[in-house]
Design goal:
It comes from Holdemania massiliensis. GO terms for molecular function: DNA-binding transcription factor activity; transcription cis-regulatory region binding. Keywords: DNA-binding, Transcription, Transcription regulation. It contains ten helices and no strands. The chain is mainly alpha-helical. The chain folds into two domains: 50 residues, Orthogonal Bundle (Arc Repressor Mutant, subunit A); 143 residues. α1 crosses α7 and α6 packs antiparallel against α10. The chain is elongated, with a radius of gyration of 20 Å.
Length: 210
C-alpha cells in the first residue's frame, strides 16, 4: 500500500513538473512551485527528485524510448537513437516511400504524449542531443547517397550541419505550435515538410536514380 501511495505521489509530481516546464521553461521553472502544485513540501519533493534535471529525464525518457522504437521500426532496425552509425544502408528511394508513415507515427506519438514531446523538443540540452544525433546520421547518409561528392571535407561538414539543423528546427517548430493544429493538420504538415526536405536532394547512388 505504501508503495502504491509513493508511486501516486511521484506521478503527481511529474504532472506538476510538466505544467511548470511548459509554462516557464527549464531555466525559470521552480522546484518550490512544483512542490506547491503537487501539494507537498519542497523537502519532500527532493526526496523523490534531486533537481530539475532528474525531473526532465523522468518526464522525457518514455517519449525518447517511443521515438527510438518508431525510428527502428520505420527503418527495419537500421537506425536507432541509442547507437552511432558508420553505415546505414538505407536508400533514399526507400526513405521517400516512408515519409507518410513517419508523419503518421510522429503525429500519433504527439497525441499520446503531447506534453512530453513538447518538453523533449524545446528543452535545450535534449534538443542538442537529438540535433547532434541527426547531424551524425546526416553525415553517414550524405556519404552513402553521394549528396555532395564534389565538395571538400570542410564544405561537406558545413552542408551536413546546415541540412540537419534545418530538419530538426522545422520539426521542433511544428511541435512548439502543435496545440494549434489538430491531428490531421499536424500529420499533413509533417508529411509535406519531409517530402519537401528530401526533394532538395538528387541521389547519385546507383539504384537510387528516379
Amino acid at each position: 500500500m505504501a508503495q502504491v501511495l509513493k508511486e501516486a505521489q511521484r506521478d503527481k509530481i511529474l504532472e506538476a513538473a510538466k505544467l511548470e516546464l511548459l509554462h516557464y521553461g527549464y531555466k525559470e521553472a521552480s522546484m518550490r512551485r512544483i512542490a506547491a502544485q503537487a501539494e507537498m513540501t519542497v523537502g519532500n519533493l527532493y526526496r523523490y527528485f534531486k533537481g530539475k534535471d532528474q525531473l526532465i529525464q523522468a518526464i522525457t525518457l518514455p517519449a525518447l524510448m517511443q521515438l527510438d522504437q518508431l525510428v527502428r521500426r520505420l527503418t527495419d532496425d537500421r537506425i536507432s537513437l541509442n547507437q552511432p552509425h558508420s553505415r546505414v544502408g538505407l536508400p533514399m528511394s526507400e526513405l521517400r516511400q516512408k515519409t507518410d508513415q513517419l508523419a503518421m507515427d510522429l503525429t500519433e506519438l504527439s497525441v499520446q504524449m503531447p506534453q512530453e514531446m513538447r518538453i523533449l523538443m524545446l528543452h535545450s540540452d535534449l534538443s542538442e542531443q537529438i540535433s547532434g544525433w541527426l547531424l551524425s546520421l546526416m553525415e553517414v547518409l550524405a556519404k552513402e547517397w553521394a549528396l555532395f561528392p564534389q565538395h571538400r571535407e570542410a564544405e561537406f561538414s558545413a552542408l551536413c550541419r546546415m541540412f540537419s539543423a534545418s530538419l530538426f528546427q522545422g520539426v521542433r517548430e511544428v511541435f512548439s505550435d502543435a496545440v494549434q493544429l489538430d491531428q490531421n493538420q499536424l500529420c499533413a504538415v509533417l508529411r509535406i515538410y519531409f517530402d519537401l526536405f528530401l526533394s532538395m536532394f538528387k541521389p547519385a547512388v546507383k539504384g537510387d536514380q528516379e
